Amino acid sequence: MGCAASSPEADRPSRRAESRNGGPSFAEISLPDVKWDVDQKWTEQLAGLEFQAIELNGHDDFLKRYPDILFQLARERLEREYPECAREGTIAGLSAESFCVDGNPCAYPCQKTVCLDDSRGGIVYASTMVIAKPLLVRPAADASHQTPKNAVPGVELDGPEMRSAKDMTLRELCAMRAQGINVRHAVVNIAVGADMVLCQLDTSATSPTILHRPPEPSDSFKKDNRMIARKARSESQLCRGMFLSQLVKSVITQGRRQCSEYTVWDQGKLPFYVKGKLYPEPTRLLVTRKLSLLEARDMEADVFEAHSAIDDILDDDVDKIELFRATNPGQEFGDIIDVTLVVATSMDVTWPDTGAYRKSQAFKAAEQAVQQHVKGLYSQGKVQRCTIYVTMGVDRSMFKFVGNPTSPAQAVREASDQQPIVSEANSPSAQNDSLKKDFGITLTPQAKQGLFASQGHFEACKETLRKKAETTSPEYLRAREVFVAPMAARHFLEINFPNCVVSDEGPFPAVLPDGTEVLLEETRLLVARDPEQEPRSIVAAINVVPRPGGPDSEPGLFSSKSWLDTPEMQQADNMLLSLLRKWHKQGLVSDVDCFAQVMMVKDATVYRFVEGERFEDYSEERIAQIKWC
């Protein structure tokens, strides 16, 4: 909250308000007893970036940009942990200019970031404080390192900046709690230089927060729905069952629209009671999961193409929609983002009106049932936070479910007179039949594939990174590209030329017309040599070219631009050809085969260097043998 003012007149408004309300002043707030854990991954990540910079002769630039790197890494950390908040814009940077260390203004750049729930219900997910204290300077390599690395772990853990940041952040959160703000699930992250610690603010908060956030349909939606309902009722026989089919389809497509990495899973039925009697109409539980969270799991999933009854009467082409299901229906993977309970209504209702079910007892019972279901998943550690939806007719209810990052080991489910029935694990064919009969959705099994290494997943990840690039500084992105591209080139050579020695030759030596060489800044030349072909051992060479246009150009890895057949690519091809001609005359290039490649951003050209003079294309058979990752 800042340093103490030198005079009473300069006291901050927040302190005066506390005094008028009779509460404790900021300095008098009682701090909770928390357990701080050291985050080794933070230190390892910084050490890895520093090592890359050293390897690429960019250590001075790394140290110069060190504060920006710290702030960006902390922001990326929150966006990875809370992607839904990043999308909704509820991760906010706050001023930390008033941060003090032992009563004096902090001497180093600081940044404070707070993450709130994506439903804007005022739930604090995380508070992060980063102090960009410069790395210790180690002028010479020690015995354990070939190069001087300054990211020494542990040196800031007990420093004055760390102590002051812990104290200030905890006091701020406690002050927020005193004002009625929900901080019971908040995580605190404090980073000073290469050290980071974290804690859970309130470990006693064993029960989750369930916040009701009912969406209010717009006037235009109500108007459109009335028009559709009138038309549907005029063709009641043709439209019979069409609404329920469209309802399930819309839930599936909405899950994918949130993020191209999201997938929707069929969890079967979730029956429930209304006034002691089983609700007579069908139900369906659909959940949304993120593909990348499941890639490393030992799991099996079936994929279906979902076809709705309404597709049959549409003249336009219908987009393909996919629905996932666990191969073992009784297996629960967790990693849930959204849970939607679809509650069917009578088939006699051709198309429902807005508000027809919102206040009904069945709707309220459905809300209770799905909340209890998610509480059960939380008690098993299968979900930590998610959004819960109940859909009945065109009415919809929404709840934000938030628990502590580590769910209670022994959670006691609340007793209820309306406990949901645990549906039995039906066979896949029975599940498919019920979905078709109850909701008019036909499932067609898709061929087994490398599900989580598909081209679609790659495109989804690329789209996510592109969106992230929109909020990232061009200088930071370009520095990342310069770091990463040579590493990718080295990896490519190592897997395609396994018996060769791969070396980084440094900046590319452009050959001028008079035969002299000039090193090109930010480029990289990587070479693979076959020891058995000495002295003509060079069997592959890659010219790694940075994004043309400089730091202010569009971030290359996230751009749709292709650099193939551009003047920049042709120039890079010619420079590599000139260098190989020179090396061939010097007796350095293999007479058996020499692979030549130019990498420019995310595009690449591939040639075979022949007869010491020219490039020619490889055969399709040879290209098919190349391993790209």
From TrEMBL:
<feature type="region of interest" description="Disordered">
    <location>
        <begin position="413"/>
        <end position="434"/>
    </location>
</feature>
<feature type="compositionally biased region" description="Basic and acidic residues">
    <location>
        <begin position="9"/>
        <end position="19"/>
    </location>
</feature>
<protein>
    <submittedName>
        <fullName>Transcriptional activator xlnR</fullName>
    </submittedName>
</protein>
<feature type="compositionally biased region" description="Polar residues">
    <location>
        <begin position="417"/>
        <end position="433"/>
    </location>
</feature>
<feature type="region of interest" description="Disordered">
    <location>
        <begin position="1"/>
        <end position="26"/>
    </location>
</feature>
